[in-house]
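Q: I'm writing a short explainer about MFS transporter for a general audience and would like to include a description of its predicted shape. Could you first generate the structure from this sequence?
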Amino acid sequence: MPDVRLASPQGRWTLFTTVLGSSMAMLDSTVVNVALPRIGRDLDTDLAALQWTVNAYMVTLAGLILLGGSLGDRYGRRRIFLFGVVWFAAASLLCGLAVNAVMLIAARALQGVGGALLTPGSLALIQASFHPDDRSRAVGLWSGFGGIGAAVGPFLGGWLVTGPGWRWVFLLNVPLALLCVPVALRHVPESADERAHGRFDVLGAALGALALALLTYALIEARAGSLAVALTAAAGLASALAFVQVERHRPDPMLPPDIFASRQFTAVNLVTLCVYAAFGGFFFLTALQLQVVVGYSPLAAGTALLPTTALMLLFSSRSGALADRTGPRLPLTVGPLLCAAAMLLMLRVGAGADYPTDILPALLVMGAGMVTLVAPLTATVLASVDTARAGLASGINNAAARAAGLVAVAALPLLAGMGPEAYRSATAFDAAFDRAMPICAWTLLLGSALAFTLVRRPPPHCRRPECRTHGNVTAPPLESDRPA
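A: Of course. Here's the predicted structure. Afterward I'll give you a sentence or two in plain language.
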C-alpha cells in the first residue's frame, strides 16, 4: 500500500515534482498560440506552417497518450515520467533553436512524444504514491496548481514573446526539467502495476498517429487540390481503417472496441469531439485575430484571454457538484449553447474593437460555457464504464478531445477561405475569422443536440472525478486508474 503522507517532506516534494512536470506540457498547449504571429514573421513562413506548429505536437500527443500510460504501468511510473520530462525538454530545446519552419515542426512532433509520456504519468504518480487518506487532497492540489498553470499560460506566453522572444516559450522548459529530474530521483518513490501484462499495442499507436498526421496534412494542403493531397487523404483513411482492424483483433488493444458498447460512453465522446473541435479552432484563431486585426501585442493578447481560463479555475469544482445533483444532460446541453453564443459575440471583435464592450463579454460567456460543461463531461465519461476501466475511458476521451482540436486547426482555415498569407493581412484575416466563428457555433450546436438526445443520468454509485479543478482549454481532465 502506498504510504507517502502529504504533510511529510517527501509528500511535498512529490507533489511539487508532478505539478512541475505536468505544467511543462500544459503550458506548452496554451502559450504557443499567442506566439504564432511572431513565429511566422521571424521564420518567414505561411499559415500552413503555423497550423503545423500547433498540430505536429497534437498529432503525436493524441496518438501516443494511451500508450504512454501503459508504459508507466509496466516499466515504472517514475521512470517513464522522467523519461518524458527529459524527452520533452530536449525537444523544447530543438524548438527554441529552430532555424526554419521545418525544424520547428519536427521538434514540435518530438515534443508531443514527450508529452504523451509525462502527462498521464504525473497523475499516476500521485495516485500510486500517497496514502489513501491523503490521496484525494493530493489530487485536488495537483489539479488546482495545474489549473493555475493553464490559466497563466497565455499571459506567460505573451510576456515571453514580447520580451525575451518567442524562442523562450520553448527554452523555458529546459531549466524546469533540470529542476524536476533530480528532485524526482531523490524524493518520488517508484511504482508499477503488477497486474500489467501482455504486449504493448505499438502498431495500433503508430497507425493512429499516422492516420491523424496524413489526414491533417490533407486538410491543411487541400487548397492546392493536387493529386498528392488526394493520395495523402486516401492513405490517411486507409491508415484509420487499418487501425480499427488492428484494435479489433489484438488480444491487448490500446483502444478496446468493446468499450464503445456503452451507449453513454459513445455519446459523450461524440459530444467531446464537437465541443473540443470548436474550442481548438476558437483559441487558435482568436489569438491571431487579437494580434493581426485588433493590433494587440502578444502580451496584451495573452492577458486578454485570461478571463476564460480564470473562470474555469474558479468554478469548475462547483460546476461538477451542481451536475451531480442535476444530472449531466442539462449542463452538457446548456454549456455548448453558451459557448456558441460566445462565438457569435466574437463577430464584434474586429479592427478598433474595445476590450470591455466587445472582447471581454464574449470571453466571459465562453468561460461560463466551458465551466458549465467540462466537469460534467469528465464525470459522465467515468460513470459510463466499469470502475476498473475508468482510467482507460478518461484517456480515450482526452485523446478524442485533442484529435478534434487538431482536425479543427487543420480544417477551419480551409472552410473559412483563409489563404496562405491571410495572417499577414488584417482585412483578409478579419473576413475569414467572421466566416469561421459561425462554423464553430454550428459545431457546438450539434454537440448540444447530441447531449440532449443521447446523454442520460448515470447510476448513483459510480466512479466520480478526482480532478475537480481544471483550467486547460485543449482537453478535459485526465484521470488514471486508482491503485488497488
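A: For your explainer, you could say: DSSP finds 16 helices and no strands in the chain.
Q: Perfect, that's easy to follow.
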